[in-house]
Amino acid sequence: MSRHIPKKRFGQNFLQDPIIIDDIVSAVAARRDDTVVEIGPGLGALTRPLLDRLDHLHVVEIDRDIIARLRRQFQPERLTIHEGDALEFDFGTLVAGKPFKVVGNLPYNISTPLLFHLADYAESVVDMHFMLQKEVVDRMVAEPATADYGRLGVMLQYRFDMERILDVPPEAFDPPPKVDSAVIRMVPHAALPHPARDTAVFAELVASAFGQRRKTLRNNLRGLLGDEDFAALSIDPQRRPETLTLAEFVALADRVAVQRIESGQ
Predict the structure, then answer these.
(1) Annotated binding site
(2) Which of 13, 145, 171, 186 has a Cα at 20 to 30 A from 106?
(3) What CATH homologous superfamily does 199-263 map to?
(4) When comparing pLDDT for 141 and 107, which is higher?
């Protein structure tokens, strides 16, 4: 079979280190009848060992050349190929009502919007294991009052318990990326630690709060909350967004949600 040439527009860097591949597959810990979907199977580095443990595997792939290779290598009764962009894929259609696992070496150029997209399916997910750019993983698990803490971490920590499980050097890939990578495990909270009254309002407030990191909450949330609102919640409006805890973001969002209900918005 001819060698596949990695395509920059799809952010293709193919994992090839057998030890790291085995570590990831072991972390996924799939059982034969589990429903598992792999995002971006590429040349099958994870696909083959996953199928050794599974009766069936779903994959989402956008590259038609890779799809053709997969169809030549795997029987359709073992591998279902969903052709298209993972950013637009409805993961809820996999198996109605049955929880599923997600795994993948995510394209680094779309990792953040893809993570937000996948978060919408948290209630149907058992767990997710992803290879990502190390700095993205740093942001996902960051704690308040640290340089990496921001919108991505707040929004994902709202829904998931997350753990960095493996650091991966560039030479584990072909071609080697110019950045270090890491593998993260994401497990949906059994019960949300700080449930918001309105998740859409919560998402809006967090995005506004981090709109300009160097500005204060008073400046970034002008139009949503006034000084009397911050005072009622005992939150200093002069604080910067990266100093707030998840619970404080939820408290601010709930205040906005209640005010909108009271005003009939």
Answers:
(1) 13, 15, 40, 61, 85, 105
(2) 145
(3) rRNA adenine dimethylase, C-terminal domain (1.10.8.100)
(4) 141
